[in-house]
Structures are given as structure tokens and as C-alpha cells.
Hints:
The chain is mainly β and 103 residues long. It has one domain. It contains no helices and 10 strands. It has strands at residues 2-7, 10-15, 19-23, 32-35, 38-42, 48-49, 58-68, 72-78, 83-89, 92-102. The strands form 3 sheets. It has a 4-stranded antiparallel sheet with strand order 2-1-5-6, with no helix packed on it. The protein starts with a strand and ends with a strand.
Amino acid sequence: MYAVIKxxxxxxxxxxxxxxxxxxxxxxxxxxxxxxxxxxxxxxEGMKIGTPTVNGAKVVAEIVEQGKGKxxxxxxxxxxxxxxxxxxxxxxxxxLKIKEIKA
Length: 103
């Protein structure tokens, strides 16, 4: 059984036991998080699709990591003007381990 959840403006397809990185969520490592924005849940004939979310469905996950992603370099240049600008950015993320899908 799998579920499609929405968090941080993105959608993820998750199954029980899976570990994934999502946009930063508040919480300490080892704490439980309930994701209530479940867009669809099930598999095959028993698939439930929400309008826009499935009523009563939620995904329980455990926070396993809080960290920063790889550095992304932003480089801007205007030719023949002597203008260059270099910036770096590291996006914060939360590592989640999916414990249970409640439908």
C-alpha cells in the first residue's frame, strides 16, 4: 500500500518503511510527525483519491535527520561590463522514515 502526500509545496509517493528527504519541518530528531495532507491512498482496486485530500487519512513518520543539502552555486555575469556575482545556497531538509499509513 502506498500514499501520495503533499508537504512543503511538493508531492511525494511514500510506502511504509521508506526514508525520504522533504522540506524542513519543525521538530527534534526521534519525534513523530503526522502528515494529514494525503492526496491518495491504497493500491489497485482499493485506491482512494481525495478531492483534494482523503478524509480521515494520515501518514505517521519519524524524524531521523535535520540537515542541509548540497550547495547550489548561483553565478551571474554580464559580458563586457565587468559584472560578476557569485552566490551559494544550501537548502534545509528533514529526513523522514514512514512508520504507518492510516486510511
